[in-house]
Every structure is written in C-alpha cells, then in structure tokens.
Amino acid sequence: xxLTVSDRPNSYIGRSVPRPNARRLxxxxxxxxxxxxxxxxxxxxxxxxxxxxxxxxTIDITAASAMPGVLRVLTAADLAPVCTPWVGTLAHFxxxxxxxxxxxxxDRATWQGEAVAMVLAATxxxxxxxxxxVLVDWQELPPLPGPEAALEAPALFPELGNNLAFxxxxxxxxxxxxxxxxxxxxxxxxxLTGRHTGVTLExxxxxxxxxxxxxxxxxxxxxxxxxKEIFARHLALPETQVRVVCGDVGGSFGIKVHTYPxxxxxxxxxxxxxxxxxxxxxxxESFLTDIHCRDHQVDARLAxxxxxxxxxxxxxxLTGIGPYSVYPRTSxxxxxxxVNLTGSWYRVPAYKARLRVALxxxxxxxxxxxxxxxxxxxxTEGLMDLAAHRLGLDPAEIRRRNLIADDAYPHTxxxxxxxxxxxxxxxxxxxxTLMDYDGQRxxxxxxxxxxxxxxxxxxxxxxxxxxxxxxxxxxGAPISAQDGCTLRLDPGGTVTASISVTEQGxxxxxxxxxxxxxxxxxxxxxxRIVTGDTERTPYGGGTWASRGAGIGGEAALLAAxxxxxxxxxxxxxxxxxxxxxxxxxxxxxxxxxxxxRMALSDIGRIAYFRGDTLPPGVQPELTVTRHYMPRDYPxxxxxxxxxxxxxxxxxxxxxxxxxxxxxxxxxxxxxPMLVDEQIRGGVAQGIGAALYEECLYDEHGQLQxxxxxxxLVPMFDSLPDIDIAHIETRTETSxxxxxxxxxxxxxxxxxxxxxxxxxxxRPLGAHIAQQPATPERILRALGKV
Amino acid sequence: xxxxxxTDIALTxxxxxxxxxxxxxxxxxxxxxxxxxxxxxxxxxxxxxxxACTIRVDGLAVRGCLVLAASLDGSTxxxxxxxxxxGAIADLQEHFxxxxxxxxxxxxxxMLVSAHELLQSDPxxxxxxxxxxxxxxxxxxxxxxxxxxxxxATARARHPA
Lengths: 785, 161
What we know:
The complex is a heterodimer of chains A (about 775) and B (about 160).
Chain A: H1 22-26, E1 42-48, E2 54-60, H2 62-65, E3 70-75, H3 76-79, E4 108-109, E5 115-121, H4 124-131, E6 135-140, H5 147-152, E7 164-172, H6 175-180, E8 185-197, E9 205-211, E10 214-219, H7 224-234, E11 242-245, H8 261-273, E12 277-280, H9 283-289, E13 292-304, E14 310-320, H10 333-341, E15 351-358, H11 373-391, H12 395-400, E16 411-412, E17 418-419, H13 424-435, H14 437-449, E18 453-465, E19 483-489, E20 495-499, H15 508-520, E21 527-530, H16 548-575, E22 583-585, E23 588-590, E24 596-599, H17 600-609, E25 623-628, E26 636-648, E27 655-665, H18 672-691, E28 722-726, H19 744-761, E29 770-771, H20 775-781
Parallel strand pairs in A: 1-12, 8-29, 10-11, 14-15, 20-21, 27-28
Antiparallel strand pairs in A: 1-5, 2-4, 2-6, 3-5, 7-15, 8-13, 9-10, 9-12, 13-14, 16-17, 18-26, 19-20, 19-25, 22-23, 23-24, 26-27
Helix pairs in contact in A: 10-11, 11-19, 13-14, 15-16, 18-19
Chain B: E1 6-13, E2 16-23, H1 28-35, E3 54-57, E4 60-63, E5 76-78, H2 80-86, H3 90-98, H4 108-121, H5 127-134, H6 145-158
Parallel strand pairs in B: 1-5
Antiparallel strand pairs in B: 1-2, 3-4, 3-5
Helix pairs in contact in B: 3-6
C-alpha cells in the first residue's frame, strides 16, 4: 500500500469525522436563545393584524396595561424615538423600490400578522393574556392578492405610484428568429412554484439586554455582524456599544438572515426600558411572519432544432413579495436569480427574460435555501422534458446534446454569469451510472405492464456558492463577503480558533477545526472553535449562500499557514536554525524528515513564560488573523445532477418517492459525511416544495396554513434513502478549492420530482407544472375532479 | 376571568422528587423548561405535531406540549438530561454522533426519546419499522436517513445477528 499525504498524522481534510460540538446537543445541553434567562427579563407578546390590509385607528391599551405582570404596552409612537425605520433596497438593483418599514406598524397593517403593539410582562403567558385585551380600531381595507391583480390595483404605498417594486429585462441573441424558424420545435409552459417557508424547528428568538450603556443581543441568526451593524445604525448607537451573540441556532435555511420588525421592536424596547426583553415566536407567528419564498409564475418557451439542440429560450417571471422588500438583502434577489440562472448550464444561443416583482398584502418573501435555483431548474428541466417528448428523444439524450462541455471553461452564460470550471457532463453520466438509468427504465416498463405507474425524472443544475462583494456589498448593504479567522496557540500547544462564519448545524465548526488541525498537524480535539459572537470573532459575513466552507475554510487555512510560519520562525530562533529547515508534524516542530525537534507545548511555554531564554529581538507572535474574500469570480458555481423515481396512484393522486439520486460537484470535499448530510437535508426541503409545502391564502389574504398540521413538511416515511456520489472539481480561486454544498440539494430536487411525476402521468395523457404537486392537483390534471 | 387556577403536584423528575404548584394551563414542556430549568426539551410546533418536545412519562413517550403539568401528580418524568445522566441511551447518543444524525439539534432530544421507546418495544426494527415509529418526530435538517441509520446501528450493536 502506498502512503499518501492524507495518511500522515492529523490529516483531517477529506475525512468523515463527527462534529465535536454535536455532543452537547445530544445531551440536551444546547444553548438556544430561549434557554437563556437574565435577571429582570421581560417577555414580549405582540398584537398582530388580523387583516391582510387595514388602517390602524386608536389603540386602547387600558385594559391590557392593568393585567397581572404587565410592565408596559408599546405602540409605534413609543418606539419611534429609539429606532429609525429601514428601507429594503440595494443600489445595484436599479429601480427597486420599497416603503420605509417600522418595528411596529404606525398607521396601516399590510399583511396578516404584522405587529402593531407589543406587551411586555413578567411571563410570556401574562404578556399573551394582556395582548388579547389590546383593542385596536381596525378599518379593513381591500387586500392585494396575487401578483397579477396587484399590478393592476391602486398603489399599496401611494408614494411608490404603483405596485411594481422591481423589473428587469434581458435579451441576448436573436431569439425571435429561432422561435419563428419552421424547422424548430417550440414547447411552452406556465410553471407555478408555490409560496413556502422554512419551518425552522426552533422559531425565531431574540433576547435583547441593555445595561451599562451596552446593548447585547442574543439571537437565533446566521449573520451576527450584519445584525450588529443594523442595530447600531437604527438605534443610533456606536458599533462599540452593540454586541450580537448567536449561540446554538435551531435551523435557519435562510429564514434567519434577515431583519424582522418584531425583533427590532424587542431590541428597541430593551433600549427604551433598560431591561432585558425576550421574544420567541410561536408557531403561528412563525408561519405569519418568517419570510416566505418562491411564489413565482414563469411563462417559458424553448425552441430546439430537430436534433434537440437548444436554439432559444424565453421566460417571463412574475412574483409577489408581500408589502415590503425585506431589509437588507431585498426581495428582488430571488427573481433576479431566476433570470440569471434559467438555462445557464446548457448551451443557449439566444435568451430573453423579463422579471416583474409585485407588492401585495401577504407575508414578505425573501431569500430561503436555494434562492431562485429551484424555480430556474424546474423551468429549464421541465422544458427539456417537453422538448424531448416532442422530438421522441430520450430525456437523458437531449440533456447530453446540450450540456456545456466539460472542456469548454471558463464559460459565460447568456445572462453574464461566469463559470470557472464545471463538470456537467461528467456529473450527468455519473448520475446515469449511479442510478442504473437503463435498468430503471426497464423496471418502469415492467411495472407499467403490471398496471403500476412509475416515473423517472432527471435534472441537471448549477448552484452558486462563495459569493463575492458584488452580490450585496456593492449595493450598500452591511453584508460582508469576507470572513476572518484568528488562531491563537495556547501555552499547552492547543489552538483556539475564532471565526466569523457561523454554525446552524451544518458542521461549520467541525470543518474549520479540520482545516486548522490538518494544516498545523495537531489532533482535532486540540482545536477549540469560537464563533457566533461579534465580540469574540473577526468581522465577517456569517453563514449563508453556501459560503461557510469555501470562504470560512479558506480564511482558516490562511490563518493556519500564518501561524505555522510564526511557530517555525520562533522555533528556528530557539533551535538556532532557519525556518525553512523545520516543519510541523504530529504536534511537534520537526526536521524535514519528520523527526521531532520541539513539541508545540514547548513553543507555547517558551513564548509565553520563558521569553527570557529567547535571543534578543525575537518577539513571539502566536496569535494571527487572516481574512479571505473571493474576488476572481462573483460566485464559485457548483454543479450536479439529480434523479427521482416515483410511483403515482392515479386513483388518489398520491405520489410516493421510491428512490432519489444525487451527483454533486462542490469542489474539494472537507468532510464527506457532512457534505452528504447537507445534500440530503437540501433534497428533503426540495422534495417538500415539490410535493407538500405551501403557504395558502384565501381571497381575503388570510393565511390558511398556520399550524404544522396544516402546512406539511416531509416526514420520516415520506422520504426514501438518498444515494449520493461526487465529482470534485476544485475552484482555483482559493488554496483549499472548496465550493459550497448547502443548497444544491434544494436546487435540483423539485425539478427531478416534477419530471418524474410527469413521466408517470404522460401515458395517462396528463401533465402538471405546479408545485407542490398535491394529490388534488394531480387528480385535476387527470381530469378526475 | 380567572387566570390563577393552580394545583399542587408531587412527581419524580429524572429520579429526583419534585413538588410544585403549577397553573392549570401550564404544559409539561413549559413546566420543565421554565420552572425546573430543564431546557433540553424544546417546544417546536405547540400542536403535538413535530415531536420536538417528546418526553418520557411513566415510561412512555408523550408530547410535552399537549400534556398539562397539573395532570402529572404521582408521575415519573424522564427528560433528555436524565436519560443522558443515567447512561440509559449512551449507545444511541453515540451512534447519533458518529453518524451525524443531527444537525441543528433542536429536534434531537425528542428523536432520542422516541428512538429509545422504539428499541425497547422492538429491539431489532426494520428500516421501514423505524420510519413508521419515528414518523411523529420531524427533522428539518437531515432528511432523516442518518437518524434511521443511527437507530438501526444501535439495534444491531445491542443485538448482533
């Protein structure tokens, strides 16, 4: 057997080591926000609009204020002096408009669930009791329903003139000639993607503490530094007076990376009253006020030559985002991504797109796992299957004929997206092998002969990761594209690493520890990770857009390299040699052949306690900080392919997912087990979108899905085991070569499931292009109801 | 309106006697978290759907968000803290850890309680039986496969074929 570099001691990159920080969660020793209690803490309960749209008349707080345990009842006017409103726009989204948003709505509620008053009491139960007695003189106003009608309706905010918050058009190549060419086959379809949401099992939670002129906010959030900036800005505090701490976070998925009015109200109330204020959303509040996502209607058409090659693609995307564009990421990004991404993994000579983003009186939407990708992939891959069927081509074959070739990089998509290096062809072929595509087709044919309706769906995709500063920062948002890692060699030879990317269960802490331990050749258990605290970590963006491994990991690798250099320089001074004659190995400074010269504990001891033994002029520097920001490309794109095998019951409309396969290329894999679990979790949320999850409203703008009994998410018995394989095309923009893995599952799964359902429906003469594909919708497609 | 309907209860929590005066409306999970500081149990949906608050009462897994604390006079309650301290589920916890059968950890206490109950009633469940028994516990992070793997591995280690 040949020894490789990964056989040396303390080689962790690429290994499936368990997450050290998961143990406390298994012991019930997690520390989520609601587990923290502070002296004199008050609990907040909100009075929320029961209407989608209503003017707020007088608010009578007399009875509520007299209730047991109640300290204060606050309305918008009370908080205005301590918290300024915010506007969810970005300068580089030209034309994007949104009205100022307040912690508590001052004059008008514009969605069911918008907070208008806040009760602060000794217990949550007392606060809720009192909230029920706050009397608001509501004057109901007409709701703005779906985006199409909203665009025709009077302006929700008169100062904006109309309800079109943002629009974008793109026209590349000569599409009209391609669509007019009589030799081309043209397929078209309206694709509907339902409005859904994240359903983090831990609801949003915040505990704001103002004391000694210092604001400390414990919150369940992905981006502590961003929130620190926002609290400082809107409470008019210097940044030195604001600390944000994100301990254990019970699921996030993009839900917990935004500014929420009720959370701003809790912070403002703490500032106003000088007492700690806790707010933990209950599940109904989660469904009403956590950001929603998707809700896109895409009219799309595709022109293909007789050989199946794409000649032109056209989409028209209309989306409703609620009354406000969410601060500071804005609610135009998802639609913008749909425009950028649709068709981008194929060779598309002509591409035309239009996006319209409409205001409406529903819960605001914003970025949730996969942002735009699930829509772009479902539209593109749905069209590919329609075209294959019209041409009599196998769905696998039409994809083979159009994927960007693996040797054709760098590649620029029609929308301008730049791909450094992808493995679309290799990933797709690997998928077909992994799933035994031909075998599955035989199985399907056999089942059909027995009266069973199986369907096979394929989906290729790209997924952005590691975004650079052109994503948000360029538009004026306090969202950092760079992250930092500080490493400190402790006297005993262990290393404390503090890093600005954050942990919500993905394994961020584990992979950072792996990178540091590997680079310094020390045992993993000798690395202690500190994260999620603006006062204890370098400045950075946090965890979102699949950036933890690629950006945080690279910062950690650079820091470890710098610490190594400093250790070797000090060791060289002690050992009277030169740094280049020394290495690190197995917790020691070694000779080039690996023979130990000094333990790291000796380095620490000498540096910190026996400086008297050092030669003159030698100053140990055993704490280092390095940062990393991707700059060569706006994003490090990943790619992959997924496939689903479903069984359809045409009598009930029920779909059973029998198998699901994924091939993913996220570059250098730091921890295969954690990558696979990110993919599986992402796939599960994609399957939820395709089959179960939807925020449903009635014609009055009332949410019909406010409990987990009404809003369905995948359960143990609704998901099969998911088979995963990898290709590793590293990005050359970093030393580590890692891209993100957190969202690819969500990007590709809905398209694979929808295509599989349609594959099963096709012999029955039916087709469905609306997610989720519920039994009722399938029965409608079959003409049975 | 009367908000102060209270009752005295005496029960055993994680092996230790507890006496408390509780409001009639207080749920078990809130009682454990707010009164006893046992924050390892979590309220997820508050409708008995998601299973995050699953707790052992008299040896059976119950929903902490549906059971009223006032009804537990004379009962024996075991939470994740007690189950951990006693070592009763040490192997299950270890298999969850090694297999990464948790991500954010918010559902995990409930998962362990339900899995513990399953393995007591069916020591060598099939994967389908695991999925069926556990279907009242929701996980939003993992896609469930790793949890099935961990429970299966625990069963196999306890009862080698």
